[in-house]
Amino acid sequence: MTGVLLALGASLAWGFADFVGPWQGRTLGALRVLLWSELAGLVAVVIVVGVRGRGAEDHAVLLAIPAAISGTLGIFAYYRGMAIGAMAVVAPIAGASAIVPVIFGIATGDRPDLWQYIGIAGAIAGVTLASQEHQEGTERRVAAGVGLALLAAVGFGFYFPAMHAASKVDPYWSTLVFRFCSVFVVGAAVAIKRPPIRISGWKIAIVAGVGLGDAAGNAMFAGAAEQGGLVSLSSVLASLYPIVTVLLASLVLKERVSGPQRAGVVLTLAGVALISA
């Protein structure tokens, strides 16, 4: 049960961070927000690992490197998709990333019971259903940002198996390795693109909060892996962040949530209940 709660905690932390970060990114630019948020997350993780005062227990923590590369490219696509499309559309599509670790987990020996299989299917179906754009009359449109959201889903999807494997060995050092690599990837992109990076006033605190929320999500997912949770189940639960993002987009930005999206949220929550039973 601890692993389930940690995975759900990761989903909650990511949900808030993945709403506030892209929201700020719409005006400040994706790379600028990512750079400062990643640095804030890194500082927090360095402090935690330093206070713990123990070295890495196994070289398997280096699996956090491919996780960081994949996840960071995914988050950049996610921010860019949010900049041109509705959060209520982009976030759930990115959340379909859970399909990748589910397939990986089952292929490598995970054996969920029947109700958990049904829960996994329900959660994935719910996230997919929630991606339907609001339609006027009978008109059907391809939602803006869908292509980038699909790229984000692929990036996030391949993050989960590698990070899960690294975290089973040492969740602290795997999170630290992940953060260092993420900062390197974002820093390289900033060096190449050379966008403005200065943030002043209260916005720096908000962006730092995004980084802390993202780092907290990473840490809780790592903790869920250390508790022995199946990669398929932990990843699906941690991928439920679009529910939080969609609700915040509806409440704060007044984005319209269609009937199919609302049904998707309910179906996803039912899947969570079955997975955690």
Brief overview:
By secondary structure, the protein is mainly alpha-helical. It is about 75% helix and about 0% strand. The termini are close together.
Number of helices: 12
The number of E-state strands comes to 0
- Oligomer state equals single chain
First-residue to last-residue Cα separation: 9 Å
If you compute it from the alpha carbons, what radius of gyration comes out, rounded to the nearest whole angstrom? 18 Å
Order of helices and strands: HHHHHHHHHHHH
Low-confidence stretches: none
Beta-strand percentage?
under 5%
Approximate shape? globular
Helix content: over 70%
What's the layout of helices and strands?
Elements: H1 2-28, H2 30-52, H3 64-84, H4 87-95, H5 99-107, H6 114-129, H7 146-169, H8 171-193, H9 203-226, H10 231-238, H11 241-252, H12 259-275
Helix pairs in contact: 1-2, 1-3, 1-9, 1-10, 1-11, 2-8, 2-9, 3-7, 3-8, 4-7, 4-11, 5-7, 5-10, 6-10, 6-12, 7-8, 7-9, 8-9, 9-10
What would the keywords be for this entry?
277 residues, mainly alpha, 77% helix
Can you offer a commentary on this structure?
This protein has helices spanning 2-28, 30-52, 64-84, 87-95, 99-107, 114-129, 146-169, 171-193, 203-226, 231-238, 241-252, 259-275. By secondary structure, it is mostly helical. α2 runs antiparallel to α8 (171-193) and α5 packs across α7 (146-169). It starts with a helix and ends with a helix.
